[in-house]
Design goal:
- The chain has two domains: 2-157 and 321-344, 3-Layer(aba) Sandwich (Rossmann fold), CATH 3.40.50; 161-315, Rossmann fold.
- 42% of the residues are buried.
- The chain has a four-stranded parallel β-sheet with strand order 2-1-3-4, with helices on both faces. It has a four-stranded parallel β-sheet with strand order 6-5-7-8, with helices on both faces.
- The radius of gyration is 20 Å and the shape is globular.
- It contains 13 helices and eight strands.
- By secondary structure, it is α/β, with parallel strands linked by helices.
Length: 345
């Protein structure tokens, strides 16, 4: 029997600094998040970051926490339930980090009699620190605990027409009666070295302004290309005029170069040059989370106002929109019947 595992990033169990510290330890010690030798990663994370950051991060989580719990978890659970109502395939939910573990999610499906699983990382673009770490962890769990399972991972869907359609619609609905001067597409940031490490050609990705728009098989695993392509496809769909939109990257850590331009500096620059009304969308996420609700909606607004801006509109992620549920269900049902099609053929 087939089953589907939806996978999102994860969240601390609470806003208590101890829970946040435990969550950050698991997240930041992932070698695909901070890809340096273990001894240095341990020194950096456990020797420095976890001695200073948990309290500040806990305060950030407190600002966005809902009565029901973590916004990311609540939204993901709503999405799972809506998708389950639309398909006969068992749908489970797991997080890469935190208490809702991948192992629990896989076990839930196995207990229902599932022996073939499609994992769907809830990230439109491929990245080492998101989709790849999920795939690697799932494969580790399969080898150790579920050797009988057949597991397939859903590919990056940043350029799938049906995804671009619902993303564009969600943006246009928010902008319809909004008097704005600039639309910023803000994606989560990654170190530039992640782009080069993911280059299967070992030579194409130079981050030089042309490699991302020059056709290459490297684009299958190039996060930067996939972000820029998402922006381009939505801009074309919405017929956005050149100069009225741009792309930036948020959430950098450490001193190594990360993808640029940086979102916080872009917001500040827009305010300083006289932009008064601005909108931001975050297409690296399909579910609102700390990065969208606090870093963009709260910190971003503060930066914009301090730089002279007046109105900053943050466009929600797709979350559990009905049209997004329909898209997910369509992908799942297509996968569900593929064996039937093969048999008929």
């Amino acid at each position: 029997m087939k089953g589907v595992l939806l996978v999102n990033l994860g969240s601390p169990d609470s806003t208590d600094p101890k829970d946040v510290k435990r969550y950050l330890d698991e997240f930041l010690m992932d070698p695909r998040v901070i890809d340096v030798p273990f001894w240095f990663r341990s020194f950096l994370v456990r020797g420095i970051i976890l001695n200073t950051r948990p309290k500040k991060s806990a305060e950030a989580y407190q600002r966005i926490w809902w009565d029901e719990g973590s916004p990311l978890i609540v939204i993901s659970e709503r999405l799972q339930k809506k998708v389950q109502q639309k398909t006969t395939v068992p749908i489970a939910l797991a997080m890469r980090y935190g208490s809702m573990t991948l192992k629990k999610g896989l076990q839930e499906l196995v207990d229902l009699g599932v022996d073939e699983i499609l994992t769907i990382p809830l990230y439109p673009q491929f990245a080492m620190a998101t989709t790849e770490t999920i795939d690697v962890k799932v494969e580790e769990l399969k080898s150790e605990f579920f050797p009988h399972l057949k597991i397939t991972s859903f590919e990056a869907f940043y350029n799938k027409p049906e995804y671009i359609e619902v993303l564009s619609k969600s943006i246009s609905e928010k902008l319809e009666n909004l008097d704005y001067e600039h639309l910023l597409f803000s994606y989560h940031g990654v170190p530039e070295r992640h782009i080069r490490k993911s280059d299967i050609t070992k030579s194409h990705c130079k981050i030089d302004g042309s490699c991302c728009v020059t056709d290459s098989k490297a684009h299958q695993f190039c996060y930067r290309h996939q972000c820029l392509k998402t922006t381009a496809l939505v801009a074309a769909k919405l017929k956005l005029a050149p100069g009225t939109f741009s792309t930036s990257f948020q959430s950098r850590l450490g001193f190594d170069p990360w993808l640029q331009p940086y979102t916080d500096r872009t917001i500040e620059r827009m305010g300083l040059k006289g932009v008064k009304k601005m909108a931001i969308v975050t297409p690296a996420f399909v579910s609102d989370c700390l990065e969208t609700l606090e870093e963009i909606a709260m910190e971003g607004e503060e930066i914009f106002h301090e730089a002279g801006g007046k109105e900053l509109t943050v466009i929600p992620c797709l979350n559990d929109r009905d049209d997004w549920v329909e898209v997910l269900t369509g992908w799942i049902d297509t996968w569900r019947i593929v064996d039937v099609k093969t048999a008929i053929a």
